[in-house]
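INTERNAL AUDIT FORM
Audit reference: QA-55
Scope: verify that the stored structure record matches its stored sequence.
Auditor: D.O.
Record contents follow.
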Amino acid sequence: MVGFAYPLGFMSTSGYVIPNKEFHWLAYALFGMLLCKIVYKLTGLISLQSFKEYQKLS
């Protein structure tokens, strides 16, 4: 079986692979941007359904 060598930042004291803090920060930032985009699109759709004059603005 072939093993992979991980950098020390990815290894815990028990030898398991764990992501470092930079990876968590990047993942949370990207997830936050994705959620903002989804909420923005959903509120646009709800506004179109709720306010009939909203379509005439653009």
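Auditor finding: record pair retrieved intact. The chain has a mean pLDDT of 75.
Action required: none
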